[in-house]
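ingest -> validate -> predict -> emit
validate: passed (alphabet ok, no gaps, 280 aa)
predict: started
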Amino acid sequence: MKKFPICLVIGIDGKKPEVIIEGIVGYLPPVCEDGKGFSFYQWDITNKYYNASIHLCQMTTKTTIDEDFAENINASIIFFDSAQEYGLKKAEEWIPFLNEFDSGVKILVCEQCSIEGNTKHTPKIVAQQWCIRHGFELVELNPLEKPDPEDDFPETLGMERIIQALHAHSWPNLELKSGDKSRINHLSRLLLSEDSEQPCDHSSSENNAGRDLIVDRQISEGIDSFEELFQAMSLMKSQASSLQGADRKAYAEKMTMAFWQAIEGSPDEIEGLESSADEE
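emit:
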């Protein structure tokens, strides 16, 4: 069996990891066993920017893993039962285990959370607080709250958000594609999409000011590598979401130029954006 980067998909309280795996891939791929009790499903990621193959590893019980396995873990997904009273407590039991790995993507998934106690599911605010405390992003497969149809940049929800987050990760074995003009508009939309569940500390204006200075410097000086591109994305999106109208559009254009330079796109393809940003 080939060795690929790993995304752990953990099922709790009868929740089947295969449900998430099938939702990500679009079907349930053939299972591969490694002889150590682990089951892997290969996912070949193809998007406008890169190609990469990873292993989605299902897990329902904590088990001892070796150093080589641990080093390959890039992402962790916990699928918990929000209809159970102690669903989050069961998820909490996995935190010491997951803290042993350096997961770039950490997602807490459930069917649905309640809003203002209108259902018996886990309250959304409680789940969000849990995610902030442990550095996860909350994704509801069937959320009660729906995106505003008049929003120019609606929030991505459900399984699509899980797929989006995994696509945005800088997988160590990815192979970059050459650019074309259509990627510019796609990148602008991606940068401006609001990720309201992503953990972020808004408690200190001093911290936010420092964050903004870092983001502005990254835009003005450029981003030197594909890895830095993805590391900067959440910071840039956070600052963009605080802007409105023309300011937000101008900021998106600056971000797009910085990202385009990082993936070595042709300067001719962003000529219009450069002149527009200068006018701002």
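The two ends are 53 Å apart (CA to CA).
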